[in-house]
Amino acid sequence: MRFPMCNHAMLRPVAAAVLMTAAATPAFPDELDSARQLQEQIDEAGQQTQRRIDELSEQARAMLAEYRAAQEEAESLAVYNDQLERLVASQSEEITSIEEQLETIDTTQQDFVPLMLRALDALETFVERDMPFLADERAADIADLRAVMDRADVSTAERFRQIMATYQEEMDYGRTIETYRGKLDLDGSERSVRFLRIGRVALLYQTLDGQATGRWNPATGSWEPLGNGYRAAVEHGLRVASEQAPPDLLQVPLTVPEGL
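RESULT FIELD:
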């Protein structure tokens, strides 16, 4: 079998093309590397840009938060300043009022001190004319008040307060019940007795042995004995006043003022 003979003229261009292709092939990987490096550089630059954008965005959010906080603080300070201005204005008015009062305090004291002295005289007269319960203690209170009125280290307000406190004590006597011990001249001899005060309605006594019972008679201004019929009632009243028995009705003698 015979093969056709090859045409050498036709083989030359093909060989040249193969050689060109073979010569160009080694240069392609370098271009890929360059392109890859360029792409990596682009990606890295993009990542850096994104990180910078994120940083700027975070800074912007922080600055916005600071701005809002500063704005809220400014609003709060504005409210506080308004309140402070009103407070200062109120204090200024109070200072002005105090200064005006200080200017007239001398005149006020000149008018007020005589009023307190008259009130003290009235209180002393009332105690002297009242039932003679706790006579020594109440007289000592009046004496203490008179001593306070003469003390330069006690303010006018404190003097007035003490006088009013004593007035309040005297008022309280009219709605309380109490018992206390004392001495009483009975039939020419001094005896230890227990006194029973029922408001200002009745003032009674009973000796410690319970044998003698009596009362203060406001009509005659003297002590007078009571019959044995009041002995048990007074004993019970003494227990009630000592909180040794529950409150109960007490049968005691009363003096009705004339004209009633």
